[in-house]
Predict the 3D structure of the following.
Amino acid sequence: MKPLSNAVLALAPSMTVAIDTKAKELQAAGQDVVALGAGEPDFDTPDHIKQAAWASIQAGKTKYTPPTGLAELKTAVCSKLQRENGLSFTPDQVVVTSGVKHAVSNVFQTLINPGDEVIIPAPYWVTYPELVKLYGGTPVFLPTSVETNYKITSKQLAQAITPRTKLFLLCNPSNPTGMVYGTEELEAFAKICVDNDLYVLSDEIYEHILYDGRKPLSIASISPEIKERTLIVNGVSKAYAMTGWRVGYFAGPKAVASAIGALQSQATHHPANVSQYAAIEALNGGLEFVMGMVREFTRRRDFVVGELRSIAGVQVPLPEGAFYALPDVSAFYGKSTPGGKVIANSLDLCAWLLSDHLLAVVPGAAFGDDRCIRLSYATSMDNLAKALQRLKRGLGELA
Ligand code: PMP
Ligand code: GLU
């Protein structure tokens, strides 16, 4: 048989998805695994959104929609951007996608020519560098650590720019670090991107999952000049607990939206009609639901961070947004399990925590930083209490 595509053969499968799938398989087989792997809200999609979807099916809205999405949904996206972000967009600048992952993929595929560089702060969400490489680009990482609160400086960004740099990727609030850049930091990034003629891919999927009174802030709202070069991706997965509905969107310059529209018309056509009706209801329905989730996530964050900080050798900053804690556990590397296995890195540690302590967490190696592991606290307090007990027991056994 002839070989498969080199680009696809070189692609690493998503480790967050793989760990979540494995944990669910083990649970289905009757094992008492606590899963803090995948980042998806444990809340159910609100009823009024389900009702809108059901009503659309009953009304026979079961056929193709335009490839860039229903006009009513694109209008709802524009209203949302105006209302929540103070940003003015027209529907021809918006493309509805099959989840935010698809919007990210569309942007990279549409922007990248072979050899183009994309600057990505690390630790990063697993998917970004793999997609950049898939489309022939080169990811350029900006390292951070617990000591820098997992934040890059504008100096780091400026120094990484070369004539081949096309795009700066900003995930704010960040998966996996939970960190949030504020106005001054965004102003500095924006100036550098404008001065150097870079696009910014702004992944705003966690914009409403913010703690301690923080307010959403899109880098596009910093100045008209940066808005012109910002490619916003966002969606309903996290804020409305709609991960399985698969609706995201792109908003940006008309020329990019139009190119993405052409791509989608050939590649995927559009997300499911019924899901688009659900998304219209979600976006028009206010933020009460996500604010309720944030209150609960705050309680969980405080519990998880408090427990992690009580373990000698673990260092973790307090997450400011999203629902992940990213402790540095490298103090445990080089130690041995009671069975004599040496834990050399985050992959070893997570594999052992799953096999011997029935705890699923994601190795930092997946996010480009082997010193840490990622815990999602988008799960019940009961699960979190069990998880932290298991983590403490596990780490306590290493000698
Ligand atoms: N961006 C980030 C930073 C994410 O954490 C996720 C979660 N999977 C996505 C994009 C993708 O979201 P969706 O499920 O809407 O594709
Ligand atoms: N964004 C989530 C995570 O990071 C879901 C899984 C994925 O798509 O990567 O766990």
Remarks:
- The pocket of glutamic acid (ligand 2) is lined by residues 14, 16-17, 38-40, 101, 125-127, 175 (CB under 6 Å).
- The mean pLDDT is 97.
- The longest strand covers residues 165-171.
- The two ends are 49 Å apart (CA to CA).
